[in-house]
Amino acid sequence: MSNYFTKTEKIRFKHVDYAGIVFYPRFLEMLNDLVEDWFEEALDRPFSKIHETNGIPTVDLKVQFKKAARLGEMLTKKLWVINLGGASVNCGFRFEDENGKTCLEGEVTLVNVAIAEDRNNIKAEPFNEEMKTKISKFII
User: Fold this and answer.
1) Contacts of 29 (CB under 8 A, 6+ apart)
2) Hey, is 58 helix, strand or coil?
3) pLDDT digits (tens, 9 = 90+) for 10-37
4) Which residues pair with 107 in a beta bridge?
5) Which of the four, 15, 22, 101, 106, has the lowest number of CB atoms within 10 Å?
6) Which residues pair with 122 in a beta bridge?
7) What is the 8-class DSSP label of residue 4?
8) Beta carbons of 11 and 73 less than 8 angstroms apart
9) Neighbour tally for 45: CB within 10 Å
10) CA gap 140, 133 in Å, rounded
11) Is 111 in a helix, a strand, or coil?
12) Which of 3, 23, 5, 4 has its CA nearest to residue 13?
C-alpha cells in the first residue's frame, strides 16, 4: 500500500503558453489544487470549512521543473508527508507524465493557523490529535 495521495489532471489549453507547454505558474496552481483536494478528500477538512476560522498557508516551497508537460497530456500528481510538526506539515510532491517521467517535483511546507474574527491577526495553531492521525497516514 502506498502512502501517496494521488490525482490525475489533463493538461488543458488554459495551462499552456504559446509553445504549448505548461506555463510554470499553472504548475503551482495545480499543486495548490492537489493540496486542497488532499485536505478535502483524504483529511475530511475542506477549505470551505477551514477558512471559516483557520487557514493553511504555504510558508516554504521548493520546486524543480524536470520536463515540459504538453497540451493534451495526462499528469499523475502525488503528494506525501515528509515531516509532521505541531502546527506544520512538510510534504513532498511529484507530477509524472503518462510514461512515469517526472515533470515537476519538490517540497511544500504548510502551517495550520488560527485567524482572528476581525481577520487582522493570524497565528500558528497546533493540529488537533484527530488531524495528526489522519495526516500521519501519508508519512513516507
Assistant:
1) none
2) strand
3) 999 999 999 999 999 999 999 999 999 9
4) 62, 92
5) 101
6) 115
7) -
8) yes
9) 20
10) 14
11) strand
12) 23
